[in-house]
Amino acid sequence: MPLILVGGLIFGFGLAYSHMARPEVVLDFLQFDDLGLPFVMFGAAIVSGIAFAIMPRIRDSAPLTGDVYRRRLKSFDRNVLIGGGIFGVGWGLSGICPGAAYASLGIGNVAILWALVGMFAGAYLQGVWRSKRAAADSGPASAD
Amino acid sequence: MIEIALFAELAAPGQVVPAEPFPNGISRYAIGGLLVGLGAVVIYLGTGIAAGASTFLESTLSYVSDQSRFKQYRGSRDWRVVFTLGIILGAAVYAVFWQGGTWTTDVQPWRLLLGGVLVGIGTRVGKGCTSGHGVCGVGSASKTSIVGVITFLTVAIVTAQIVQAMGVSP
């Protein structure tokens, strides 16, 4: 847990330092007024990519959890496109994404609570909907 | 200087490339990005976890909701709260020592709220956000994440340009 906190501290500091915690700066990128944003995302991806590439070859498992070092690989299905599209509309409208929203609260941007309330509401809505659908799919048929 | 002038001239029609692509320089973005990556690496080295920020939304809902969808996150919800608190505190350290106080957005509340709802739905249905797909997924050379990033980046650019063209600002 202390290590998670330290990692989060550096992560959040980086988001604030890069100004990604300011929706205006993200919108400036999306409107092509300031092309800095890719340096943040891809800069971070390169740093994490080095760790993802090297660690599995050096050690089998992480010291604190015993978890095997793996890359972050998720299966592809149409949800990636549907969800990515919905996220894209929301990101383009508001200029804020989850990690940057938490950091935005940290820089004293209380107005971002609007976005955070919205994110929880959105996550809840999709959770209720998918819970119901999962129940319907495996309902009476798998009652055994 | 001549190159810059040419560049500006070429870029003028359509404004696909701005006359001044980096009005604030690139160092803040590059250094910030390296730090974001470093934060993710610190967690990965110790725990083997490729962290993302948006799962926190669902894992935290599992404290207060019995919806079956959220149950899968009960095991990770505690450390995800710590991770998010770390992000808030880290940004607060920046605000205190570099920014010199608080900063508040001028983007209108309805954009933040409605955009937030869509971000909440989309990141969870789409299996990740800018940190999960964008940083850890792309860092893992995951094809799913690369497709995800291209999707939300393209849609976000189109959306922001339409909103701007409709005269909504900020």
TrEMBL record, chain A:
The chain crosses the membrane at residues 39-58, 79-101, 107-125. Keywords: Membrane, Transmembrane, Transmembrane helix. The keyword Transmembrane applies. The keyword Transmembrane helix applies. It comes from the Archaea. This is Sulphur transport domain-containing protein. It comes from Natrialba asiatica (strain ATCC 700177 / DSM 12278 / JCM 9576 / FERM P-10747 / NBRC 102637 / 172P1).
UniProtKB/TrEMBL annotation, chain B:
It comes from the Archaea. Keywords: Cell inner membrane, Cell membrane, Membrane, Transmembrane, Transmembrane helix, Transport. It is found in: Cell inner membrane. InterPro entries: Sulf_transp_TsuA/YedE. Its main location: membrane. GO terms for cellular component: plasma membrane. It is a multi-pass membrane protein. It holds the Pfam family Sulf_transp. The chain crosses the membrane at residues 29-57, 78-97, 109-126, 146-167. This is Uncharacterized protein. It comes from Natrialba asiatica (strain ATCC 700177 / DSM 12278 / JCM 9576 / FERM P-10747 / NBRC 102637 / 172P1).
